[in-house]
Amino acid sequence: RSQRYVRASRIPSSDRSRGFVAMARASAGTQTAAMRGTNLSLRPNQAGRSVSARGMGRNVQPIVAVATPSKPPSSRQAKRSKVEIIKENSDFLRHPLMEELVSEETFITDSAAQLMKFHGSYQQDDREKRAFGAGKYYQFMMRTKQPAGLVSNQLYKTMDDLANLYGNGTLRLTTRQTYQLHGVLKENLKTVFSSVIKSMGSTLGACGDVNRNVMAPPIPFKNKPEYVHCQELAQDIADLLAPQSGAYYDVWLDGEKFMTAEMENPEVTKAREDNSNGTNFVDSPEPIYGTQFLPRKFKVAITVPGDNHVDLFTNDLGIVVMHDEAGTVQGYNIVVGGGMGRSHRNNDTFPALAQPLGFVQKEDIFYVVKAIVCVQRDYGRRDDRKQSRLKYLVHEWGIDKFRSVVEQYFGKKVEEYQPLPDWEFLDYVGWFEQGDGKLCYGIFVENGRLKGEMKTALRTIVDRYEIPVSLTGNQNIILCDLEPSWKDDIMSVLNAAGVKSRDEVDELQRFSMACPALPLCGLAIAEAERGLPDVNVRLRKLLEKVGLEDEHFVVRMTGCPNGCARPYMAEVGFVGDGPNSYQIWLGGCPNQTRLAELFMDRMKIDKLEETFEPLFVYYKESRKPKETFGDFCARVGFANLKQYAEAYASPAV
Hints:
globular
């Protein structure tokens, strides 16, 4: 691994111009073709010569930096969303953000706010703090980027301090193994961001039209090489797909040079720079992304066979580390086209599961990841952001055509997908042996909100023992590298703060998730984080009423249909569609491998017991041995569920 320097110095204007011209030369044709779905012809590289595809032993016509149509584009400009124009004119995410951050306004304009997302922050309005006649109460949410959820001791302390000094006193653990810090005022943004960077953390690409945080199992199994490899690969892919122009450091460190203690895998550098198949923008500060970046967000998850902690099939790109009995990596199964986001009453939008693409050898993983990202870059729609995710491209083309185009960008055939064992969802709550003589302890954090005495207790432990932590994909936290002799003291500190152990947490709670929703998220139209605890209590009472006191299932709630808490994978999903009103999705499964379906288009929250009591009674009467509630709903079908519910009469109390 070579030393990694964070490029904080400015890129010479001449270099930026070359990158912009290279993009502009191809952009009109690319967008016309990609948005209208026309067939694209492949053209030789800019030197006009054929090159040998990597590892194929024959000459092919490689793909240009961006695919171009066989005919010159018409004079009529292709339709593009306004975000595409903002990105194009931003000088690689710099302007007008840099100017507006130093203005005296408490907010930034929409153009700057769009760029701010790429830097890891959303501008928000706390609807409950608005003063009469004063307009919106602007503040910012900052999201970190933590591949595999790994957090150093130094970064943990920094985030905890920032929450107290500049946030709302709490930290949010997300469903993608990152932190969110809410309540940051504009005047404090530079202090907050620079503090994270100087603590060896990052927020770059935590939001925006780029690769987001790369998920992987957070458990520190030091004696299982396949798990260690997952975490290393998560960091490598995060590095491979990170923006390269240096704008992030121009904005937050004012161009100051800054050297991290981390190392970038030289194979990552090699793969990023490789242009043997014409995938790169030549002489551009952004060799993979160009000026336009991706059409929409891109999500990657990595895991080992059988462990579905990361909700693998909800990602744009899923990677399964195939290994032998000793944990030696043999290669990777690849799935593509998953995603949760949709819009109410818009049937052209939908949640989707990722589909098998195939298998690649170990040495090819960076190249196939880059190829998939570049296909989405060149063919994903840029006119309608509701149709811009990779899942819609895979849906439109079909997996076979998508694989064929990926192979052209990859320069190799993708091999046949290899058989896998059954999947299991593992939440890693409780005590585990790391395999190196040390322990780790997974702690349940309700809906991911670290606050109050729990937050204070965790800081005490992190300070006392100088340990790192891991953030899970189910909004929980793992204390790592614990000496067995520390166990009693750690439990004493946690018990004194009222932190529940695994056995003390209702399993209905333990396997549930909610997004933050109201009052901060601008997209929220219903409660989620603040609403789910009461819903879980009511569901538990109802299960006890009908004689199912020992049952539990996966419950997830979101305040809008975008699906941040992945409700479309739940056995019971609540999707907000208005004040105190939710869609009900049923039929997902505990191991997160089957989509739920829309059971009820609108349910007022005060009708929860009336809605679910007949379903639970039917489940009790007609389930098979060990059949879960989600599996039961999927087996009997919604028509039978609704028929039973209509005929049901609740027994008199």
